[in-house]
Amino acid sequence: MGKNKWARFQENETFALLHQPVFKDLFNGDFALKGKWGEEFFKNANPIVLELGCGRGEYTVELARKYPEKNFIGIDIKGARLWRGAKTATEEHLKNVSFVRTKVDVVNSLFAEGEVSEVWITFPDPQPTKSRKRLCAPMFLNRYAKFLAPDGIIHLKTDSQMLHEYTKAVLAKNGLRYTLADNDIHAHGKSSGSVLEIQTTYEKIFVDMGFPITYLQFHLPQNAVLVEPEDFIFDMNVPKAKTRG
Ligand SMILES: C[S@@+](CC[C@H](N)C(=O)[O-])C[C@H]1O[C@@H](n2cnc3c(N)ncnc32)[C@H](O)[C@@H]1O
Q1: Ligand 1 center to 82 CA (angstroms)
Q2: How close is the Cα of 199 to the center of ligand 1, in Å?
Q3: How far apart are the first and last CA of the chain?
Q4: Strand, helix or coil at 100?
Q5: DSSP-based helix, strand, coil % in the chain, nearest 5
Q6: Which ligand 1 atom is at minimum distance from the Cα of 103?
Q7: Which of 125, 151, 174, 220 lies at a CB distance of 3.0 to 4.6 Å from 226, suitable for a disulfide?
């Protein structure tokens, strides 16, 4: 392990807002704050918003600055990336931010039914050949539906046109509609002044490369059991930069 990474892991231990539960414990049981994030961690009853696969947590931190009346939790498995968001939120004394270092796969051990108002999935790896690792695949959406409030919102931001179309196909296959869809959110300054103008590390890279950024917003029925759109074909010939993962 590099010296820099080791130093970040050490500093991570000092951040009160960063939780690093043992994976095995979450796999076998519930996290201590499940169902109690408002009462015991944030000390208020404000809506809870998640960012899944948050990397350095830019969306989480910027949303928290903009919306002090909501609570934000970023989740990622990479500790050295989470360090950035946890350090910024700690230094700025943001009381409405938390991070959890774990796999999104065990997210149901973290949140109780109806506990979450919104989920942001920001620039997930498209995983062209492994839908079981795709954070917007039915297997994952079914997990989110268990803890989303009845009118809860999912936001998907991605540079991958393929992933955007795939997620639309998931909704169509399961008789669901999206509430918003845009193939190029930053065109003609459209995103300016809106929540979509916040940019993550990956987003900045893809914007600089000239790739359009897409956005999809939708709701999920509580306890949904969605299935894969079996006839959807991920186009493996899309240029490499658009098929990371
Ligand atoms: C392409 S990066 C995007 C990071 C950030 N959202 C951004 O836009 O800069 C994808 C992130 O998702 C995380 N990730 C992917 N699958 C995950 C999983 N199952 N559980 C937790 N994190 C995951 C990776 O560790 C990585 O940081």
Answers
A1: 10
A2: 15
A3: 22
A4: strand
A5: 40, 20, 45
A6: 20
A7: 174
